[in-house]
Structures are given as C-alpha cells and as structure tokens.
Amino acid sequence: MPRSSVEDTGLPLPDPPPSAPPPSPPTALVLEHGVLKSLLGAWALAACSPEETTAVEEHLGVCGACADEALRLREAVGLLHPPESLDLDPTLRTRVLESCLDRRPPRIPVPAWAAPYDAEAARLDALLQDIGDAEWHTPVRLRWFEGDDPTSRRTTVAGVIAHLLSVDGLVSLALGLGDPLGELPAGTATPAARTEAFWRASHFPPTRSVRAPWREQSHTLVRTVSFAGGGSGQLSVPYGDFELPLQDSLLDRAFECWVHAGDIADAVDYPYGPPSPAHLHEMIDLGARMLPGALAARRRAGLAGPGRARHLVTAGAPGRSLRLEIEGSGGGEWLIPLDSPGALASADHEVAHVALDGVEFCRLAAGHVSPEEAAAGQNGDRAAIRDVLFAVASLSRM
C-alpha cells in the first residue's frame, strides 16, 4: 500500500528545514594599475579568467588611457580574424577534380581533341546553374556576318541553349545517337535552319527546362567519343553546306559554347572569362586552318580579290602568303596561303603581316566585331589583309 501522508494523520506538520543562505558574491580582485594594464592583451583575446575580466572592465570605466589601449588591441584582434565569405571558392570543384585525377587517372580518358568541348560545356553549365528563373527570359542578340554585312537574331537565354542543342545534334547524328530534336522537316540540315525549325516547333518560348536535354546531350557526346577511342576523330560531321572531321567539329562546338556563354553572361551581367590558353590556341588554330577555304568561297562569291592566275600557281607549289600573328594567351603564328587552288603557304612569298590579340581574333571569327573595327597591326599588301580579315569574319554563323 502507498505510504500515508502526514496530513492524513491529524498530527501537526513538522517545521520546514532552514533555508540555505544566499551565495555570497565573488570577492572582487584588487589589482594594481600596472597589473591591469598588462592584462589588456589577454582581455582583448578573451583569455582572462572571469575575476580578471571583471577587474579589467571595471578599471576601463575609470582609466581613459587603458580604455584607449584596450580599444586599439580589440581592433587589432579583429584584423587577425577577418570575416570569411560563406561562398565556396569557384575553383574548388576544378582543384578537387584535378587532385582526384592526378591520384587515379580515369579508366576511359577523354580524347585530347574532345577536352575543349568538355571544359567549355561544363563552364557554360555552371553559369546556367547560377542564374535565376526570370533570367532565362532575358533578351540575347546573336550576331554573325553574312557576306560583308553584320546580321543578328534576337532570342533569349533559353533560346541560346536551344540553339546549341540544335547544332550539337548534328554531331549526335554523325555518331549514330539520333536527333535530339526528333523528326525535322526536309531542308533543315544547316545549323541556322535546324535552330529556326526548333524555335518554330516550340509552342511556347524555351524555358530553363531546355538545360536538361542540352546537358545530357553534351555528356553523351563526350562519353561516346571517349569509349569510341581516338580513331573516331576522323569521322565526318556534315553541316549542310560544308563538313568537318569530328575532332574539328567538337572544337568548333567548344568555340560556340564559349562565344554564346559570353553572350548570356553579358545579358545577365555575369563575369565570364576566355578558355584556358591551351584550348584557346586550339580554337585559333582551327580558325587559321579554315581560312583558305573561306577565302576561296568569298572569291567564288565575288567578295574577295582574285588570287594569282591559275597558270602561275601549280598545285602543291608555294604561293603568296600572309603571316597571321596572334598575341597574348593562346597565341602563335600561322602562314595563310592567299593563292588557290592548292597553293602552299611559304615564308619566302610573304606579302603581308597581320597581328591580332587572341581573344580579339576569336571575337572577329564569331562576328562580334567588324573587320574594320578589329584592332590589328598591319603591314604589307592592303588588299590581301582586307580579304583575310573579312574571311575571318565570314567564319561566323548563327
């Protein structure tokens, strides 16, 4: 049975135990001025005992000299511990991946000629991850040259990614991966025609949902060429009115990723730098190798001066040449043959010299600056220089 309460017995209640006396306040330390002054450094670092802290703070209320010294020491401590940003270092991912790959190389490495596309697609994807939903509808103007005239097309950030998805689909088709756009009407083999058809087929303007298929397609392309091996680089990729080997086509797609990422970054006011020097050099080299064909096409269209007479230039023999000097990051020198068909470049037959910054050359090849505006050092045959600069601009397309 439970114990009975004392209240149920009828007996008087016992007296309560005496309450404990309240604790006496701690005895304040009584320290001399010199000792208190010597404790200021420890007090600023929060290294004093509670009694010392109380004594120092009481002293600071009556001693102006020590109060000034204490303030100076506290500010110095603040400089020793600057506030750090909570944002991750933007280079952290790259450094971690490089460290991992240095310790354990990938079992299936990405071919060297596909590395620029892999890198630029990853940089663009990181940019897209940082922009908000509303910014996907920010206006963007695509620019390029047709003939001797600049032209442009207005779209949005999402429309630019739809454009890249459309043109990357040509590489996907060449690799037998199928067309990410599905069935398109006949006559849509060129990059511009595919993009326009995709835009027209959309019931609504593209939104951020276009990022997922573009991202998946870029990963699939890199994965496929990695498993296919180095020999797949010579596979031909048709662009409608011209063709490129697969290794040059992926380099071209890397260039387009960078250029259009810059267009997006400008539209949303986001900082965006050029590719690494090694990748930039490969992009410039591709442009220099495509210049003879661009010159020949402009001559056929009556937009460039004629080369030397056919009977004066034997196929495989040296002809007139222009020295293209690219300065800065990714630079180098290239000899561009000016006579066609089949003439070789020769330093002994150099008639002109053009110097351009690497990024400026790429902006000219992207149609973002006109040949007249390109900051170039020029020497020699003015007509040849003009033809080459306009041929660089003619490399641009939608």
From TrEMBL:
Segments forming domain Putative zinc-finger: 38-67
The answer to whether UniProt assigns keyword Transcription to this entry is: yes
For this chain, one GO molecular function annotation is:
metal ion binding
> Where are the annotated segments for Disordered?
1-26
Name of the protein described by the UniProt record: MDMPI N domain containing protein
What segments bear the compositional bias annotation Pro residues?
13-26
Alphabetically sorted, this entry's keywords are: Transcription, Transcription regulation
Q: Which Gene3D superfamilies match?
A: Anti-sigma factor, zinc-finger domain, dinb family like domain
- Asked if the record carries the keyword Transcription regulation, the reply is yes
Among InterPro entries, the record links this protein to:
Anti_sigma_zinc_sf (IPR041916), DinB/YfiT-like (IPR034660), MDMPI_metal-binding (IPR024344), Znf_put (IPR027383)
Q: What organism is listed for this UniProt entry?
A: Streptomyces sporangiiformans
Q: Which residues form the Mycothiol-dependent maleylpyruvate isomerase metal-binding domain?
A: 118-265
Quote the SUPFAM superfamilies the UniProt record gives. DinB/YfiT-like putative metalloenzymes (SSF109854)
Determine the domain of life of the protein's source. Answer: Bacteria
